[in-house]
Amino acid sequence: MDATYNLNGGFKPTMKRSADLDGPDFYPTPRWATYALIESERFKGEIWEPACGDGSMSEVLAETGSKIASSDLYDRGYGETGHDYLTTRRRAQNIITNPPYNSAEGFVATGLRAAHGKFALLLRLAFLEGANRANTIFHRAPPSRVWVFSERITFYPKGAVVAGSGTTAYAWFVWDKAHTGPTELALLKPGFKARYSKANGLI
Ligand SMILES: C[S@@+](CC[C@H](N)C(=O)[O-])C[C@H]1O[C@@H](n2cnc3c(N)ncnc32)[C@H](O)[C@@H]1O
Q1: 78 CB less than 6 Å from ligand 1?
Q2: Which pLDDT band, with edges at 50, 70 and 90, does 166 fall under?
Q3: Is residue 5 domain-resident?
Q4: Contact (Cβ atoms closer than 8 angstroms) between residue 32 and residue 195
Q5: What is the extent of the structural domain holding 30?
Q6: Beta strand segments in 36-179, E
Q7: Mean pLDDT calculated for residue range 155-164
Q8: Pairing between β-strand 115-124 and β-strand 170-176 as defined by DSSP bridges
Q9: What's the gap in Å between 181 CA and the centre of ligand 1?
C-alpha cells in the first residue's frame, strides 16, 4: 500500500514535502520541468503564473515570447504579492503553475473558471487516483491531456545542489477549453533534465 495516501483518497505528503501539511509549500520548479511543458504544449496569448514563488517557472515561461503575469499569495521577492489565487476574480487566456499540493483541487477549480484558453498544473502523477478526486474533478472536468514525465523531478530549496534523483512521478495536467473527447495521455521523452539543468549542478 502506498503510505502517502489515506484510504479516503486524501493526500498525505511524504517527508520530502512535509511543508505541504501546514506551510505555504514553497518549492521552486527545476527549469527543465517547465521546458518540458512549453516544448510540448502550445500556448497562444498571455500566460499567468498565479503561485510564482521566486519566478523559477515564470522565467522559463517568458521564453515562449508570450506576455507573462506573475503573482503569489506570499512575498518571495518576485511578481505581485498578496494575491490569493483560490479566491481570485481575475481571468487570463492561459494559466500555468506548480501549485501547493495541499490546494491542488482548489487550483483546478479556480483554473476552470479563470482560464479562457488553457491551464496547466504540475502535479504528482498520483493526483489521478483517489475516490474524492474522481467524484469532484475527473468525472466532471477531466484534463484534456496528461503529459507524464519519464524523468523524476526532485524539488529542492532554492540554491540547493542537486544530489541523486527523485522517487515521485510527476505529470503536467492540461485543461484546454477547446478540447473535446477523452483525456489524452502523452509521454515526455527523457532528455529535458540534461538539456536544461544548469551545468554547475544547481537547479
Ligand atoms: C510549490 S511552490 C511553486 C512555486 C512556483 N510556481 C514554481 O513552480 O517555481 C507553490 C507556491 O504557491 C504559493 N501559494 C500557496 N498558496 C497560494 C494561494 N492560495 N494563492 C497563490 N499562491 C499560493 C506559495 O507561496 C508558493 O510560492
Answers
A1: no
A2: confident
A3: no
A4: yes
A5: 15-196
A6: 47-49, 68-72, 80-81, 92-97, 115-124, 145-149, 170-176
A7: 72
A8: antiparallel
A9: 31
Domain membership of residue 92 (yes or no) is yes
- With respect to residue 202, please indicate whether it lies within any of the assigned structural domains: no
DSSP string covering 21-61: TTS----PPPHHHHHHHHTTS---S-EEETT-TTSHHHHHH
With cut-offs at 50, 70 and 90, classify the pLDDT of residue 70. Answer: very high
Q: Residue 29 C-alpha to ligand 1 middle, in angstroms?
A: 10
Q: To test the ligand 1 pocket, which listed residue (22, 26, 56, 89) has its Cβ within 8 A of the most ligand atoms?
A: 26
Q: Is the pTM of this model over 0.85?
A: yes
The verdict on the CB of residue 25 being under 6 Å from ligand 1 is: yes
* Beta carbon of 58 within 6 Å of any ligand 1 atom: no
Distance 27 CA to ligand 1 centre (A): 8
